[in-house]
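Colleagues,

For the teaching module next term, I've prepared a clean inverse folding example: a structure given as tokens, and then the sequence designed for it. I'd like students to try predicting residues themselves before seeing the answer, so please don't circulate the second half yet.
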């Protein structure tokens, strides 16, 4: 079942997700994030977007145990963010290649 990857991982705890979302809200206010987003480029598709349209995506999703660190967050366009959901980039890219 290509679309049901809930069979392949145990979701992180609600506490982990809540804690990391709070960290993400804080990181979004940082100059580091504002500069990264200001470039206007989606990490996944490489498209150019107004900075305000880009969202913060966790490369390793929070529900998969990912953390809110500078090494795990990237600017992402709404379409890529919606398509990626809780997948790892390799899993998501594999579905695109099918």
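(Answer key — instructors only)
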């Amino acid at each position: 079942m290509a679309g049901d990857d809930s069979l392949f991982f145990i979701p992180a705890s609600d506490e982990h997700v809540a804690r990391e979302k709070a960290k993400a809200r804080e990181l979004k206010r940082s100059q580091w994030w504002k500069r990264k987003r200001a470039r206007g480029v989606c990490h996944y598709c490489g498209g150019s977007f107004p900075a305000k349209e880009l969202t913060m995506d966790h490369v390793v999703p929070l529900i998969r145990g990912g953390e809110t660190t500078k090494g795990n967050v990237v600017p992402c366009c709404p379409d890529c963010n919606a398509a990626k959901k809780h997948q790892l980039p390799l899993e998501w890219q594999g579905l695109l290649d099918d």
